[in-house]
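Recall that a protein's primary structure is simply its ordered list of amino acids. Everything else, from secondary elements to tertiary packing, is in principle encoded there. The following example makes that idea concrete.
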Amino acid sequence: MKKIRTAVIGLGRIGWHFHVPEIVKHSGFELVCVCDTLIERLKEAHDIYNVQTYSNMQDMLKREHIDLVVIASPTQFHVQQSIEAFKYGCDVFCDKPAATCASDGQKVFDLMIKNNSKFMVYQPHRTGSDIQCLKNILKKGLIGPVYMIKRTRCDYSRRCDWQAFREFGGGILNNYGSHQIDQLLHIVPSEIRNVHCITRKIASLGNAEDVAKILIETSENTILDLDINMASAFSLEPWIVFGKYGTAALNPDGEVWNVRYCKPTELTNLLVQKELAARGRKYSNGEKIKWYEEEFKLSDFAPINYYDECYNFFALGKEPLVPWQETLQLMQIIDLCKQQTYQEKETI
C-alpha cells in the first residue's frame, strides 16, 4: 500500500483531536511533520508522535517531501495556506469552510486545476450514521418524493473564542452552517433557485451571528428549511423529512429514524368537487388513510471512515467524497446569506 506523506497545519481542536490521530492509525498515511505557531503544541506533538515540527509553513514545505497537506488552522488562513501547498506540488485536505467567501474559494480551485493538484474539504456531517440511515430510507421510497426537509441544530452557548468574531471567519454561517447546509445539499443534490436568510447575535460574546434561519429552494422545487440556534434552552427534533406519502423524523436523542407513510395504491379514488357549496356542509372528505410505521436504528448503519475516503481520492484516484464543485456551491449559498443579513440589525 502506497503511503501518503502527510503534514498537518494547526494543532488546535480539530487538528489535534481528529486529524493527527486518524492519520497515525491509518495504514495508508505517514505523519511526517506538523506546523503550528505555539511552541508547546509542537513539543507535545514531537514527544507523542516523534515527528518533525515547524512554526513556519514555507520552511516545512521547503525542507520536507510532502504529498498531502492537511489544513486545520483557523478559517482566515485556509486560502493562503492552500495556495502555498499547491505551489510546492502538494495536494490539500482542508477543514471547512475552504474560504470565507466563494470568490476566494474560486481562486483556490483555479490554482488547483492549473497545477493539476487535488483538493477536498473535510465535511464530516455527511458521513454520519444519521445520514447513511436517511439515505437508505429515501432509497426505499417509503415516503415518496421529498418536497421539504427541516434541519434544526440547537444549543445554548455563550461563544467567546475566535469563532465568535466575523473578522476571524467566525459565526455560525461559516461554522455550523457549513456542516448543515452541506448535509441538506448532499441528501438532495440540485441547483439552487432561491435563498433567504435571517441572522441574529443573541448569546455570543463576539460580533458574529449565533442564530440563523435559512430557507433554500432547489431547482427541483424542494424546500430546505434550516434553523441553527445557539441561544436555545430547549432541543428540538434535529431532522424532519416530508414526502408526498409520508414523513421521516429523527428522534431527539438521535438514535432512531421514525417513518410514517401510506401506500398510494391504497388511497381512495376521491371525487374532486369544484362547486362552491360543500356537499353535506362537511369539512372532511371522509377519507380513512391507513398509515404504516417503521423504525430504523442508526446503530445498524456504520458511518463512513473519512480517511478511507481520503486515501481513495488522494492515492487511488477515485472520485472525491466532497467534489470541489459542491464546496463552491456551499460557499455561494453562505455568501448569499451574508449579503442578505450582514447589513441588518444583528442584536436584540
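The two ends are 57 Å apart (CA to CA). Residues 324-341 form the longest helix (18 residues).
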